Amino acid sequence: MLQIYNTLSRSKQAFKPIEPGKVKMYVCGMTVYDFCHIGHARVMIVFDMVVRWLRASGYEVVYVRNITDIDDKIINRAVENGEPISALTQRFIDAMHFDSDELGLIHPDHEPRATDYIAQMQGIIGRLVDKELAYQGEDADVNFAVRLFPGYGHLSGKSLDELNAGERVAVGGGKRDPLDFVLWKSAKPEEPADTRWKSPWGDGRPGWHIECSAMSCDLLGEHFDIHGGGADLQFPHHENEIAQSEGALYGQDHKASDAPFVNYWMHNGHIRVNEEKMSKSLGNFFLIRDVLKSFDPEVLRFFMLRAHYRSPINYSDAQLEEARAGLVRLYTALAQVPASNQPIDPHAVWAKRFTDAMNDDFNTPEAIATLFDLASEVNRAQGEEKAQLAATLKQLAGTFNFLQRDPTHFLQAGSRGSVEGLSADQIEEQIAARVSAKLAKDFAKADLIRRELIEQGVVLEDKPGGITEWRRS
Predict the structure, then answer these.
(1) Which catalysed reactions does the entry list for this protein (predicted)?
(2) Is 36 annotated for ligand binding?
(3) Same structural domain, 233 and 379
(4) DSSP symbol at 113
(5) Are residue 332 and residue 443 in the same domain, yes or no?
(6) Which of 9, 40, 380, 420 allows an S-S link to 36, with CB 3.0 to 4.6 Å?
């Protein structure tokens, strides 16, 4: 049975969907004012993996990942650029889709945009005001009264006295308590007209947190299975989501032990760059599209999933090169065997080991270790056994969309964007020259050609029948 680490309980729990055989999952998506970076890539890759495994396990999954298309950063960027909000956000939504497709990720079943859910947000805010869990301050903002909700702090595991405001925007003068967070921001005179909507509390726009409550409840219902996102969202964003959602549903008397808004909360770990926190100010901020100029998308996905999704991960070119070397090893095993799509026995030892790993809180490091051990068996086996093991390797790896390409194409492709090194035609010419040297019994020249190719990152492998295969190291 699948076990999931639930941030809410701080423990692994057996996964039991609300409706047998069906899973409803919501993941916090991007704020679209710039290109996606590798931190976004980790969120996308991790929950792509989760959805793939759930579906491979027989579940019917509804996967929702939202888009925040109204936000202070978006407004500031649009004003700087002198362009409408909608033009800015659509450009970066298109860029996000391009990056996702380049990475080979599945599309969410629903990708709601915040600006399409203003009415639903106002409905939740109205319920909170009616239940006296929200109030309008002197500055006309509508705020959630944190201390009136008894369950606040359960997700982060902190008491109210330990928590800080942690909001995206500065604490306003209209708040009764610094922990209170904004649900509806009143419009400012200097803000563009396309940043405001009419409401019972005056013209304005939604706060950040209320967006996800409205979109998830509308698309998945007021009680669903899994809510995911990066570890940085645990507090305050997800803590506030729980408070406003359960507050609107149940009122002030709701306790953490009562019916939850979401059953399982999942958070992926942070990314560091060369052991430092990733930030623009440190100059170690990497966009997905820039990384993919040098590294194959499968390499980036493989790098991300070699680590457990909850663990912090250190990003560097050396780590990506190591990931590529791992994929080379796996593809090399498949290159020895004709392509096969033979069905595998799910109860066979390799499939069971892989399944056990994935059912242990999506333990991709152990699942990938299984692939490496299986590749070693492919290398040792012969005949029909070799073909069957290779088919098993390809199909198990296919769970993550790994090893689905022609092995020779991958092995000869090398790193992306390299302007150095030999072309495929040049390599073939050198191999032909080596063959001619061997036929002329000029073995010193043949060895020299091999050494020169190795120095330029090309590995030769002589096969029976005088065939020489090559790959980039």
Answers:
(1) tRNA(Cys) + L-cysteine + ATP = L-cysteinyl-tRNA(Cys) + AMP + diphosphate
(2) no
(3) no
(4) B
(5) no
(6) 40
237 is in an annotated binding site: yes
Rounded distance between C-alpha atoms, residue 208 and residue 28, angstroms: 11
Of 243, 247, 214, 254, whose CA–CA distance to 131 is shortest?
Answer: 247
| Same domain membership, residue 356 and residue 266 | no
Say yes or no: 392 and 437 in one domain: no
217 known ligand binder: no
pLDDT reported for residue 418: 46
Residue 270 carries which DSSP code? P
Q: What is the largest CA-CA distance in the chain?
A: 93
Helices (H), 221-254: 239-250
Contacts of 172 by beta carbon, 8 Å cutoff, 6+ apart:
137, 139, 141, 182
Which position has the token pair 């299975």?
225
* Residue 125, domain member (yes or no): yes
Say whether 246 counts as a known binding-site residue. no
- 309-347 pLDDT, tens digit each: 999 999 999 999 999 999 999 999 999 888 677 777 777
Q: Are strands 3-6 and 204-206 parallel, antiparallel or unpaired?
A: unpaired
Count CA atoms within 13 Å of residue 443 on its CB side.
Answer: 1
